[in-house]
Design a protein that fits this description.
The complex is a heterodimer.
Chain A: E1 6-8, E2 11-13, E3 17-19, H1 28-31, E4 60-63, E5 66-69, H2 78-92, E6 97-101, H3 106-117, E7 122-128, H4 145-158, E8 163-166, H5 174-183, E9 188-191, E10 195-198, E11 200-201, E12 206-207, E13 213-217, H6 222-235, E14 240-243, H7 249-258, E15 260-265, H8 268-271, H9 275-289
Helix pairs in contact in A: 3-4, 4-5, 5-6, 6-7, 7-9
Chain B: E1 2-15, E2 18-24, E3 36-40, E4 48-55, E5 59-65, H1 69-75, E6 82-89, E7 102-107, H2 112-123, E8 129-134, H3 143-149, E9 152-157, E10 164-165, H4 168-172, E11 179-183, H5 186-195, E12 200-203, E13 219-222, E14 225-228, E15 235-237
The chains are: A alpha/beta, B alpha/beta.
């Protein structure tokens, strides 16, 4: 028997598989398809202080081995998430959930995190300082070590649950930003958010996406994720939740070897709604193939 | 929604750039006219959402226009190929509002979903009128198929090479009907909106990520709040649409 359990900021996960925010809604859409309690946990749709419609459509463009999205944090706002979405989630998911939070000012992050921190089912707060699809906020906080640290400190001051800061790969030095978050009190780092990209339609000769640019995700970005996780693992002592193009149990192991304690699955959920479940089912066989008994033993094993 | 593997039993050209594909397998998750399927193709990251033209217990018929790399690959797939398909996506049309003399309006690749809808309405004993709009004669398909169902069929072409010259609304404005159902391009929808004298249902198209409501890639605003074209649509009622 192989052991797939890992510990993330003091909470034990049955396995390290976490569907990523923005690809799994609030869980119940997927609960119609399979029992989502097989997941380690999942990170729910990015939540902001106020309701947001997001960007105009088209918001999606297909690319080689990936896709670009510019949804722009569509969500009903934190009050509606607490009043409507979390009760629905509770009916189909009995594990702690990761609450994903975005904002446009430090006070927004503080407001939203403070509210969600009080929700019983919230196990972790994943603070997104790296959304590339909104203006005047989002990624602006994640591309500066000082700003990322400021958000981290402010959120930590009003919360009790572990705070995981989700970082952007669209930076020159992700290590210094990760270190700044750790010094500011972050309990973990999650990485990488999407890479800023663009696709141009040769027929119209214009960008496909209405927002022009968007976040590129999918298998094509996995090598970048592996490299960045590897670098950050060497520099920080807090756990890393890795993500970026993960589509198989082999990918999960690769990111863990680079330094991830748990692994998020993003775009793959959109192509195959059973992707996360299938990765979990395949994990024991792939662990055996590579002579891994305890999955937690391989974290950072490539160093 | 269900993920199934369907085998191609037919894949042939039926008009300029338009292909008909029949697939065999478990399509029991399709429950309404106007739903769509989402097809995985080797070599492409996202699935291809295609409207359902017709279905019964074990067969699915789709009609698609070759417009890009993905549909070019689809057109070359031989019979016997197995495809990974998500079936039973979207809400579909609500037939109960049709009244006794419904009007069905399809424009171009918006024609296919009208077929199953027409078949069901005729089976319910409704007197169905169909307007099919195309750009030109060589793009026309399914005229005889709709007639065979027992519907009264009008064809319009923009260039006048067949049927009534002009747009679907040039026919629509002279007809009496109890309700309308439509699928087609946005300019056609806008013309219908200014011509229609009854309530009706529109089926919308949008670029999608997942096709089953997870990614918020295809959201739109309606009078009743934000809706996802893939999950809460693609069919919206006339009264809720913000033009």
């Amino acid at each position: 028997m192989v052991n797939t359990k890992v510990e993330l900021c003091g909470i034990t996960l049955d396995n390290p598989i976490i569907p990523a925010s923005g690809t799994f809604g609030f869980g119940y859409e997927f609960a119609e398809l399979y029992d989502i309690n097989c997941l380690g946990t999942f990170s729910f749709k990015g939540t902001t202080k106020d309701a947001r419609f997001g960007n105009p459509t088209p918001r999606i463009a297909e690319c080689d081995r990936g896709m670009i999205n510019a949804v722009g944090l569509q969500n009903p706002g934190v009050e509606a998430v607490i009043a409507t979405e979390l009760p629905k989630l509770k009916e189909c998911f009995n594990k702690p959930v990761m609450a994903n939070v975005s904002g446009f000012a430090v006070e927004d992050y503080v407001y939203t995190c403070e509210k969600l921190d009080k929700e019983e089912q919230v196990g972790w707060l994943e603070v997104n300082v790296s959304c590339p699809n909104v203006h005047g906020g989002g990624m602006a906080f994640g591309t500066s070590a000082e700003a990322a640290a400021e958000v981290t400190k402010a959120v930590k001051a009003v919360t009790t649950k572990p705070v995981i800061i989700k970082l952007s790969p669209n930076v020159t030095d992700i290590v210094s930003i990760a270190k700044a978050c750790e010094e500011a009190g972050a309990d973990g780092i999650s990485m990488i958010n999407t890479m800023l990209g663009m696709k141009i339609d040769l027929k119209t000769k214009k960008p496909v996406i209405a927002n022009k640019m968007g976040g590129f995700s999918g298998p094509a970005i996995k090598p970048v994720a592996v490299r960045m996780i590897y670098q950050v693992y060497e520099a920080v002592n807090i756990p890393i939740v890795g993500m970026g193009g993960v589509s198989s149990a082999e990918d999960v192991i690769e990111l863990m070897l680079a330094g991830a304690t748990a692994v998020e699955v993003g775009a793959a959920n959109l192509i195959d709604p059973f992707a996360a479940r299938d990765i979990i089912n395949n994990l024991p066989a792939v662990m055996k193939k590579y002579s891994i008994e305890n999955l937690s033993d391989i974290i950072g094993g490539a160093h | 929604m269900k993920q199934v593997f369907l085998k191609i039993t037919e894949n042939r050209k039926i008009a300029k750039d338009v292909w008909l594909m029949k697939l065999e397998g478990d399509v029991s998750a399709i429950t309404a006219s106007g739903q769509f399927v989402n097809i995985k193709l080797d070599g492409f990251y996202l699935r291809r959402p295609i409207s359902v033209c017709d279905y019964d217990e074990n067969t699915l018929t789709i009609i698609y226009k070759v417009v890009g790399e993905g549909t070019e690959v689809m057109a070359k797939l031989p019979c016997g190929t197995e495809l990974d398909v998500l079936v039973g996506l979207g809400n579909g049309y609500t037939l109960s509002k049709s009244g006794e003399t419904p009007l069905l309006i399809g424009g171009g690749v918006g024609v296919p979903p009208m077929y199953n809808l027409c078949r069901k309405l005729v089976a319910e004993g409704k007197k169905v009128t169909v307007i099919l709009g195309f750009n030109t004669k060589e793009e026309i398909f399914f005229e005889d198929e709709f007639k065979a169902l027992g519907a009264e069929v009008y064809i319009t072409t923009v260039d006048g090479s067949y049927g009534t010259k002009g747009f679907v609304t040039d026919v629509m404005k002279n007809l009496d009907y109890s309700y309308f159902f439509t699928c087609g391009p946005m300019p056609m929808f806008k013309a219908i909106e200014s011509t229609a004298t009854t309530s009706g249902q529109y089926s919308f198209e949008e670029r999608m990520g997942c096709g089953f409501g997870a990614c918020m890639g295809c959201s739109c605003k309606t009078k009743y709040g934000n809706k996802r074209i893939c999950k809460d649509g693609p069919v919206l009622e006339r009264e809720e649409i913000i033009w």
